[in-house]
Amino acid sequence: MTNTKTGKAFEYACLVSLYNRYSKLNINVRIIDTPQLNTAKTYFYNLSKTEQTNYIKAGVAGVKIIDLLEPKLQFSNSSSLLELTLQTDKQGQTGDVRDVLCIRNDKRSWSIGLSCKHNHFALKHPRLSPSIDFGKDWLGHPCSQQYFTDVNNIFNPLSFYIKNKILWKNTTVNKVDDVYKPLLIAFMEEFKRIYSQHTTDVPRSLVKYLIGENDFYKVIDLEKEKATLVLPVNFNKSLNIPYQSHKSLLKIGVPKLPSVVYHIGFKQEFDPSTNSYRDSDNTIIITCDEGWTFSMRIHNASSKIENSLKFDVEAISTPDSMRYFVQPWQ
User: Any bridge partners for residue 264, and if so which?
Assistant: First the structure.
């Protein structure tokens, strides 16, 4: 099963775990029926019985942590309805990375969200292509014509292969020297240009884009460790809110957004053949203040040559105020 399908299946496991937790407490809770729910449910039931059991165990462990942090899930006025729903993928493209929503539409509407990941820590998978304006989409400032010229010069020689859906392995194209590195260089040069003109807001916009605009809990199923990791992301201070006298047993920090980009460049990798370090073939590092560092690996997401390449983005360091909680499965 692909990463997308396993991710959707885990979303369903988390949704069911939330429902089971609060329905057993006689809380008024319901799951909203949507097309994305049916899709995730199908992927879940396409898993083996053992996998289904493990996904539910991972979801239950994540809910145990979140239950300690969010009093409003369990405590509310007697007429309140707790609704659980899955979001569409389009929401993630616009900056809302939450997969599962828990909603109370009371006099004061309230919601929290979960971003569910199965066995990986990746943040986003944005693409670069001749038509994608990453400057506008990521940073709020459009890319220059020179950037698009540079990117088109990289993709134009691939147009025959793209049109005819030819596999990378059936060409003489050198992915690293002809595509990966030139594209990363064009990206970094354009990022530097935009940053030089908009130094005050680019670092903040970058983190908001890569992490997510809304506050949420990242829930990661660690299959090998048989544990679930939960990372609260609380930029807007909307998590961890008490209900009357009911307060969270644990305090969630509010991370500071960066104001400076210290460095953007190729990741340095050790080469045993020369006993020295060299530039990575496909990965760059962006380092900011306040403890933020991101790794961005470019790759072809398909065996066929396409008119875009995909980033895998990971946060390799975050502020100390962002702390993980880990719960073993039972």
Answer: 286
pTM of the model: 0.89
Angle between helix 35-45 and helix 3-23 axes, rounded to 10 deg: 100
- Exposure string of 275-309, with b = 16+ CB inside 10 Å and e = fewer, is eeeeebbbbbbbbbebbbbbbbbbebeeeebbebb
pLDDT in tens, 267-299: 999 999 899 999 999 999 999 999 999 999 999
Q: CB–CB of 68/248 below 8 Å?
A: yes
Element (H, E) at 312: strand 309-317
Measured CA to CA, the distance from residue 210 to residue 140 in angstroms comes to: 13
- Around 283, how many Cα atoms within 13 Å sit in the side-chain half-sphere? 13
User: pLDDT by residue (tens digit) across 45-74?
Assistant: 999 999 999 999 999 999 999 999 999 999
Could you tell me whether strands 100-104 and 309-317 are parallel, antiparallel, or unpaired per DSSP bridges? unpaired
- List, in order, residues 6 or more apart from 196 with CB less than 8 Å away: none
In order, the DSSP letters of 90-132 are HHHHTT---SEEEEE-SSS-EEEEEEEEES-------EE-TT-
